[in-house]
Amino acid sequence: MTWMEAKLFLREPVGAFFTLVFPLIMLFIFGTIYGNVPVPESGGQGAIGNLIPAFAAMIIGITGLMAITITMATYRENGVLRRLRTTPVSPLVVMAAQVIVVFTMTGLGMLLLVTAGKLVYHVHFEGNAFSVLGGFILSSLSFFGIGFILAGTLPTARTAQVVAMVLLYPMLILSGAAWPRELMPATVQKISAFIPLTYVVNLLRGLWIGETWSSHLLDVGVLTGMLILGILISAKTFRWE
Amino acid sequence: MDTIVQVEGLRKVYGATVAVDEVSFEVKEAEIFGMVGPNGAGKTTTIECLEGLRKPDQGSIRVLGVDPQREGQTLCLRAGMQLQQSNLPDRMKVWEALDLYASFYPKASDWNELLSQLGLEEKRNAPFSKLSGGQKQRLFIALALLPDPQLVFLDELTTGLDPQARHAIWDLVRDVRAKGKTVLLTTHFMEEAERLCDRVAILDHGRIVALDTPAALIRGLGAEERVVFNLNGTLPAGLEKALSGAVRLEVQGERVVVHGKDGRKVSLVSEVVSFLTREGIPFHDLRTEQPNLEDVFLSLTGRKMRE
């Protein structure tokens, strides 16, 4: 089932584009504008070095909010889940297949980003790879919960898509995923403290430049809380039809 | 013969609407049992209660010896279900759908065999969204047959199909029964029920208004059969006397209609034909008109079935 869902994911050009190609394009655009000259304020990292973890957060936002929400809501509305319901498959398997596929795709998107950063901009990486991977897994999974909850609670696929977009765009802009928070006015920075994606950006950027988990307890706490709530509420709100 | 499905006093209410009330029936092994009635008669609600997809408000249900609400999982393994409204992802290919669904069952039938049985071999690599209505239905039948089920539920199987596709599907359903499987279907086509089902329950406003074999239901109507033919000349006297029992003759120019009560010893048509041949009267375009389930529904409810 997981393999099947993966094939379906890649056959959907728009979804695959936003997850895999779009962040790369963003990277190249910003890379062309700023170059990768080390900036002292960000621990000697160049602009690209800063952008990679931010864009990784962007991919997480897109896949968690859009890919999962739209797929699940559409499956429910079209009766794909209804058909599955008549088989011995449990909701858990259906959701797990989604999580595995979307997580793999998100990871693939990040891998492409990092590879492009290395090859094109010679980004130097000072963090611990396992640590970054761990942060990435935590962030992804805690965001996927939002997708399942939206898909489970909103009445139609159309509304789920609209709500996901309405949530996603301000999140991308305000969290620092699209451009650094440091460049935002103070009031906007305060607002961004209420945006879940901000914590993903902070954590990933921190781990990327070699900061420790203990210096990001707030981020980790918020994301872990989201993960637990996400699992509980997703399981409650799941509906076959 | 074993009882496969047993329903007693089923009742299901949606808000203020009573969708199904006091529905009781049994389905025996290896029969095609049909529920027929207009839209909104409660057919789908009933079948979905049997499938375990809806929780009945009252009544007891046993399907393959289990309670669908409590042991839905067991039922899923032993019964195949085709639903009125369901879909597959647009970009899923026919073979992938079969392969995926086969993976859900511990002892799935060989889907390659089903593919050729259902005439979907050419469409093997076609995505679901590119299939015609008939092909989609055949694929859903294939999915329903994957667990090699003892019982197959088919809900509004041929709705929206052209007559040719419909006949092809009927043949498939007969094949399924020929393999000893039991079929429980719903339809709002009286003709489908009459030609396909061994026994039929006619539903109206959530209740069963009649339940028997199609032939018995029609016989029970006591309606008349008609023989219609055209003559080249005029009808000589004596036809009425030559026919046994009470008949009524209607002559409209060249066209002759003979009305006779149903349930005669000798069939009306053979008496008419032998009279015409004996007298050497040339005739053409002879046909018989018999009452059908449509007439049964009309007489039971006072309404015509509408599609």
Walk me through this protein's architecture.
The complex is a heterodimer of chains A (241) and B (307). By secondary structure, chain A is mainly alpha-helical. Chain A has one domain. Chain A has ten helices and no strands. With 307 residues, chain B is of the alpha/beta class. Chain B contains eleven helices and 13 strands. Chain B starts with a strand and ends in a 6-residue tail after the last helix. In chain B, 39% of the residues are buried. Classes of the chains: A mainly alpha (241), B alpha/beta (307). Chains A and B meet through helix 1 and helix 4 of A and helix 2 and helix 3 of B.
Q: What keyword list fits this structure?
A:
heterodimer, A: 241 residues, mainly alpha, 10 helices, B: 307 residues, alpha/beta, Rossmann fold, Alpha-Beta Plaits, 2 domains, 6-stranded mixed β-sheet, 4-stranded antiparallel β-sheet, 11 helices, 33% helix, 29% strand
List low-confidence stretches of chain A: none
Euclidean distance between termini CA atoms of chain B: 35 Å
Domain tally of chain A: 1
What is the CATH class designation of the largest domain in chain B? Alpha Beta
* Rg calculated over all Cα atoms of chain B: 23 Å
Tell me what portion of residues of chain A adopts beta-strand conformation.
under 5%
Q: Tell me about the largest β-sheet of chain A.
A: none
Set out the fold topology.
The complex is a heterodimer of chains A (241) and B (307).
Chain A: H1 2-11, H2 13-34, H3 47-78, H4 80-85, H5 91-121, H6 129-153, H7 157-174, H8 186-192, H9 196-208, H10 217-237
Helix pairs in contact in A: 1-5, 2-3, 2-5, 3-5, 3-6, 3-7, 3-9, 5-6, 6-9, 6-10, 9-10
Chain B: E1 3-14, E2 17-28, E3 32-36, H1 43-51, E4 58-63, H2 72-78, E5 79-82, H3 94-102, H4 111-117, H5 133-145, E6 151-155, H6 163-178, E7 182-187, H7 190-196, E8 199-204, E9 207-212, H8 214-221, E10 224-231, H9 239-242, E11 247-252, E12 255-261, H10 268-278, E13 283-289, H11 293-301
Parallel strand pairs in B: 3-7, 3-8, 5-6, 6-7
Antiparallel strand pairs in B: 1-2, 1-4, 8-9, 10-12, 10-13, 11-12
